[in-house]
Amino acid sequence: MARNEEKAQSMLYRFREAQAAELGLGTRADRRPKMASACKSLRECERWRGEILRELSRKVSKIQDAGLTDYEVRDVNDEINKLMREKRHWENQIIALGGANYRRNVAMLDDDGKEVPGTKGYKYFGRAKDLPGVRELFQSKKKEEEEESEALSFYKKFTNQGPAYFGDLDEADGKLLGYERQAEETEWRDEYTNVREILDLPLDDPIPEIPRGSLASSSPLPPNGLSPPQHLSNTKRKAQEEDVEMDAANTEAEKRLRKAESDNTTKADVSSHGGADSIRAHATTAAAYLGFLSPEDLMPPTLPTREEMEGVLLALRKQALVEEYFGE
């Protein structure tokens, strides 16, 4: 019987080995690791990723075969999704080892610029999109998107409308106001006549005018080039006079506030000086009974000002920088 070395040199053995390498099977000692994190070589990670891509290409070509049954199509689609997950793990490992970033999260779009359903999570390839249940899934998503687009297009024509759409310019030319005034006078005469008939009053008396307020009796909208109504000009004049009076009152209040602040500052200074003198007198009296303490020892501690604290902190910072760059 031939030895193993001789078997390895045979033509059939080398053909089988090349065929297994082409199919991505490899030998038992040269199989792809199950855990991508176990591979610490960037070159090996690139190699295994390329092998997965070749397997994906073969599987995607296989799933287009019309002779496959629905069960075989589902199995092939599951294998493709499994290889996609494994490829993502190897790409993460390549990034962790300092390699290129192959993960491009680019959304797949259709002709209308909308994202294609089934591009996230579990994906369907080739004939898997025509399987029972999957076809309805894609159709339902497409139908929902069409309904949303129709509703948006229906309400879009009502958005961004000008003031004329809401009727804000109906009274600009004065025709509507004139028509309303005429209809109002006609209704007033009819109702007045009806009331006099109900009360058995004579109908020969003249019909009085409609009692209108000051705003109603004024002209509806003055044409361009004419002055506004008298009551509007009077209102504006009164508002201007009130603004002048309020400005004067505010100025006087500010002056009084500044004067009160200055008086309070002076009083605070005087009270602080008086308090310091009383504290020193008490300290001197207490030091007379305690011979080993001086009045200065019994005085309350003097707190540093803000400027003194900033100076101390600045000096400490300078000293730390000098020690860091020049040493002790």
UniProtKB/TrEMBL annotation:
Q: Keywords assigned by UniProt?
A: mRNA processing, mRNA splicing, Nucleus, Spliceosome
Q: Where is the composition biased (Basic and acidic residues)?
A: 252-266
According to the record, the residues making up region (Disordered) are 203-276
Gene Ontology annotations of biological process type: generation of catalytic spliceosome for second transesterification step
Bias type Low complexity, positions: 210-219
Entry's localization field: Nucleus
One cellular component (GO) term of this entry: Prp19 complex
> One short Pfam family name for this protein?
Isy1
Q: Which family does the similarity line name?
A: Belongs to the ISY1 family.
This protein is called: Isy1-like splicing factor
State the organism of origin: Suillus plorans
